[in-house]
Specification:
By secondary structure, the chain is an alpha+beta fold. It contains one helix and nine strands; from the N terminus they run αβββββββββ. The protein has one helix spanning about 1-30; strands at about 40-50, 55-60, 95-100, 105-110, 120, 125-130, 145, 150-155, 160. The strands form three sheets. The protein has a four-stranded mixed sheet, with no helix packed on it. The longest helix is centred in the N-terminal third of the chain and has 29 residues, at about 1-30. The termini are far apart.
Length: about 160
């Protein structure tokens, strides 16, 4: 009789131990925050002993990973300088006409390789268009535009790139 009660006690203890292990495995599976991302799954633990069967089913937890937002800095490229007499202008603006805040017509002139180009006053421009190299009259002509709209000067009887 004593061996039967010992066997029953051992069977009961084994059953309880199996349930505790099943619960512990389920908790560990559900509590894994650092687990790699996997497709959703179901964890199933089946523990049997005679005559009791314990089944535990719990959905596996899939951790979510937030995608970082990467912002690309926007670098604005200037399209033109501020037209003011004596103010710097961009090398790409050399020989271009501009009008300052007072309404004066200025031209972006190269100051040589040692200094940046600057906005300067120019002689009267009658708005005529000529080709570089065409003849002009120094006593009458002074400033005009080439076909692309850039400033040209009358010097030594011919239209020259400039200023």
């Amino acid at each position: 009789m004593r061996s039967k009660s010992l066997t029953t006690a051992l069977a009961t203890a084994t059953g309880i131990l199996a349930v505790v292990v099943a619960v512990a495995v389920t908790v560990v599976v559900l509590d894994r925050d650092d687990a790699p991302v996997a497709s959703p799954a179901t964890a199933t633990t089946v523990v049997t002993h005679t005559p009791t069967t314990v089944t535990s089913t719990a959905p596996a937890q899939v951790p979510t990973i937030e995608t970082p937002v990467i912002q690309t800095p926007v670098i604005e490229t200037p399209t033109g300088s501020f037209v003011t007499e004596g103010g710097e202008c961009y090398p790409s603006e050399v020989r271009s006409f501009g009008t300052d805040g007072a309404g004066r017509s200025l031209v972006c002139a190269s100051m040589g390789s040692a200094a940046p180009p600057r906005w300067v006053q120019h002689a009267d421009d009658d708005g005529s268009v000529h080709n570089v190299g065409d003849s002009c009259d120094d006593s009458v002509d002074s400033v005009a535009q080439d076909p692309s709209g850039l400033a040209i000067l009358c010097s030594n009887g011919a239209w020259q790139s400039g200023p």
